[in-house]
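Hey team,

Sharing the NADH-FMN oxidoreductase RutF, flavin reductase (DIM6/NTAB) family run so nobody has to redo it. Sequence (200 residues) first:
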Amino acid sequence: MISHITIHPKILYYGAPVVLLSTENADGSTNISPISSSWALGSFVILGLGVGSQGLENLKDRPACVINLPDAEMWRQVEALASLTGKNPVPAYKEEIGFRYEKDKFAAGSFTRAASKSVRPERIAECPLQLEAEVRHIRIPEYAESFAIVETEVVQVHADERIAIGDRYVDPKAWNPLIYNFRHYFGLGEEKGKTYRSET
Ligand SMILES: Cc1cc2nc3c(=O)[nH]c(=O)nc-3n(C[C@H](O)[C@H](O)[C@H](O)COP(=O)(O)O)c2cc1C
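Structure output:
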C-alpha cells in the first residue's frame, strides 16, 4: 500500500513534452519560446503562456504560430533558450531571475530556420515534428491573470520522414519527445504497451 503525505510543491510540472513555439515579432522576424504547457484535442492544440512573454504578445497581434516539437537529444539547445526572452525591456520579475533579452533565438539555440507553408513564423528545421497553427481564441482567466490559455488549430503538419508511417501515422518507436519533468529534461523509456485503438 502507498503511504501518501500532503505536500505543497512550488511547481506542478508533472511531465509534459517541450514545445518550441515560433511566433512572429512586430518586425516580421521569428521569436522562439520554450514551453511545456500544451495538449492536443483533435486538430486543436491548447497552449498555456505567461502574460509577460513575448510569445503571447506576438500571438495577440499576429495570431499564428508553429508548434515545433524537439527530440529528447535536443535538450541542451532548449536549455540554451531557458533564460532568454524576446521581450525588450525584460520584465522586472524575469530580470530578477536572470533573464536577458535576445532577439535572435535561432542563433542562441543553434537552430536552423525553415520557411513555413501556411503561416508566417518560421519553423525550426531540427525539430522532427512541426505543427503550423492558427490562433482561434485567447483567454486570460479571471482567477489567474498572469496566464493565458491560447486555443490554436493545426493547419499543416511536417514530420521527419524517419518518424512517419505513410502520411497518416507517426511511429511511436521512432519519435522520442523531450519531456519536462519537474524542471528536469527526460526522454521516454521502453514501451509498456498500447491502447486497443492503436493502428500501428
Ligand atoms: C522547458 C521549459 C518549459 C517552459 N514552459 C513554459 C510554459 O509552459 N508556459 C510559459 O509561459 N512559459 C514557459 N517557460 C518559460 C518561457 O520559456 C519564458 O517565459 C520565456 O520568457 C518565453 O520566451 P519569450 O518571452 O521570448 O516568449 C518554460 C521554459 C522552459 C525552459
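Residues 54-61 form the longest helix (8 residues).

Ping me if you want the raw files.
A.
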